[in-house]
Amino acid sequence: MRIANVLQLGIKELRGLLRDPMLLLLIVYAFTLSVYTASRAMPETLSRAAIAIVDEDRSPVSGRIALAFYPPYFVVPRLITMAEMDSRMDAGLDTFALDIPPNFQRDLLAGRAPSIQLNVDATRMTQAFSGAGHIQSIVSAEITEFLRRSGAATATPVDLVLRARFNPQLDKAWFGSIHNVISSITMLSIVLTGAALIREREHGTIDHLLVMPVSPVEIMLSKIWSMGLVVLLASAVSIYLVVRGLLAVPIEGSVPLFLAGTALQLFATTCIGIFLATAAGSMPQFGLLMILVLLPLQVLSGGMTPRESMPEAIQAIMLLAPNTHFVILAQAILFRGAGLDVVWPQFLALLGIGAALFLFSLGRFRRFLK
């Protein structure tokens, strides 16, 4: 194998990419606008939820409760009557409807433990599940404060103090932006290498390579380093300019260490792209195969759902996928500030998986050329 051949063929791949405006546009979009919208446009936590209040008590404590709901978690509460509550819920105008019964304050001061009814529109699942608990906490806090000021409250035996590590404000933008960068790295590395091989086959240039004094290893390595370099540079720009700059997400660990792990991930995923391209007869077939491979890699790697929540069999199987180790590595470095002494098992796993995928894809690529 000659390094000069690998470099020259890789430069040829980069020139071919520069002549493809659609792929260039996809790269720019995936690492800029897609990262931003993933963290801002689709909130995973409670945000501007519609709430209505039926105040049948008209007392100071019911007024305190009504004034406790405000942006950004809720819109300004709308005071409605009991007759309007069901019709507004049926029409989808309110996600939550809180009914404060008559004589609520009197029963509260008398120690009768009155109840408040909360109606929830469960079709809005994200807001419904998180919002119900949030409303319960707000109502409990306002009642406790009211009783304390009125002299009817007793001291609570335990005071729970919540401290969230690595994301003190529980800002979903921190997680969403990093997760989208990880997803884009995997997706584009597969797309670019696969598209490069299919483009050569469709244009007939793969036949030209067969008569040149180059080996299948050199051809394959040229596609890996060239397309991997493009994705690596794009991910670095995205981390520095979009994640750290535009979104102001604090990066706790070493970005160069993360990029070193990204290079190992790209080594593995570009091999997957070459294998899929050799199995596909055209670009549409490649797209279908990529969906079948990419979805399990993204969904079951632990980026969307914690691995601990998955069946043990799935956890064991996904240890064979490079994405699983890359997600662990990326979150440990970027969120927790981990060093090489912590993430070296993931580096070693990515290197081993990448080597296995390279040998497997190389065998398939040689048969493809014949």
TrEMBL record:
InterPro entries hit by this protein: ABC-2_transporter_component, ABC2_TM, ABC2_TM_bact-type
Keywords for the protein's UniProt record, in alphabetical order: Cell membrane, Membrane, Transmembrane, Transmembrane helix, Transport
ABC transmembrane type-2 domain sequence ranges: 132-368
Recorded GO CC terms: plasma membrane
Record field: transmembrane: 21-41, 224-243, 255-280, 286-304, 316-335, 347-365
Location relative to the cell: Cell membrane
A GO term, aspect molecular function: ABC-type transporter activity
Membrane topology: Multi-pass membrane protein
Similarity remark: Belongs to the ABC-2 integral membrane protein family.
Name of protein: ABC transporter permease
Lineage summary: Bacteria, Pseudomonadati, Pseudomonadota, Alphaproteobacteria, Acetobacterales
